[in-house]
Amino acid sequence: MPHTPASFSAPESNTDDLPPGLIDSDGPSKGLRSSALLSKDARLAGRPKLCSDCGLCDSRLKPLMSKTCVFVRNRTEEIERRLFGRNRQDGDELRFGVFRTMHAARMRRRVPGAQWSGMVTTLGARLLERAEVDAVITNASMPGTRFAPRPILARTPDEVRATVGNKPCLAPSLGLLDQVQDAGVKRLAFIGTGCQVHMLRAAELEQDLGLERLDVIGIPCSDNVTYPDLSFFLQQVSRSPQTIVHYEFMQDYSLHMRHEDGREERLNFIDFPMDRLEGIFPSACLSCFDYANTLADITIGYMGAELGWQWVLVRSERGEALFELLRPELEMGTLSSAGDRARGMPRYIQMLARPAGKPPKPIRRLIAWLQRHRGPRGLEFARAIIEMKLFRNLQHVRDLFARFEARVVPEHVFETLAPYAENYRAVFQRPLGASKPAAQPRSPDSDQS
Q1: Can you state the angle between helices 119-129 and 317-326, rounded to 10 degrees?
Q2: pTM score, two decimals?
């Protein structure tokens, strides 16, 4: 491990606190239904089996791994109390996390090259322009690629603007914390995913790194992959994978792929070749329960908004200030909700136990039409997707990493899924809540809107 400056004294690593079988000498695993190695990168050898390559173990802070890693022990609920003064309440907060306000918004002037309208890029650049922070941790692209992430410590607004566009791959962004300390950065903004934010919050680095201010801009994240696996994925779903400049899993139940010449290619979710894709997802991402990046100051995504808009959750006092910094440049929309996710969830639970084969094309077209016009939409779409991810990931942990369940599955997962407890028991012949006390069932209709 590199020399640790006197200003930071890392504690000794306490491996006695780690559950048996957590560390794999070969490195992290991946695969939806069976386990394989995440990467042959020697840098990952000796990491936990559940590892999203957040970068913490590449820094001098590696001894904090057993305390901070969300895949060693999920500390979301204790961090919520420290950060927000309370835990999430019944209703939408169970799925979306603690929030003060929720908005549909977009930039009045779309940032060229942005995945959406450019809110995240603009916010990071604006913080530097106004000298509110000294640096921003974000991700540029590796030279010669569009989507391979290259974490950078941006010191100027132009450096942030040059990172515009999504890089939907595992990125070791926390490895830059050494640079933060070495450069004497006192006011830091961090743009990252839920697992990275959990590590950042759990470590309580403000005191150890001498930070006077930490702004956390969260990006929703699900089913992330390594860059080679992303390239493989695009080859399976596109007729021209090499010309894709942006892609996203959209609220109309299809994958939108934008190409260099401006044309847009779409593939319905029901048409995905899942038989060729199951082996690409990291086990860590399939054991994550924080799609909505609930420990950020502000989360900026899209899933709860209508097509063409971004979904913003303001979570803290700092988050309110960040949103107000953007507000003069925003067009504000309206959040809506339609459909009933509870109707389809029992069938989804059955499919988790017994995956269905791919229907004939005419049937798939009908299913796609019904999803778009009769399925959950708006906030109900976000609720449905999050509940589906929670069910799928809970079952992944139980099937492949059962010994870790008590450590990595937070209590709010069982509370969120409680309305479907009898459906789960009927299919899997076991209680939803494992050894935990049974959660009081909540009606799906009682959500906040």
Answers
A1: 100
A2: 0.89
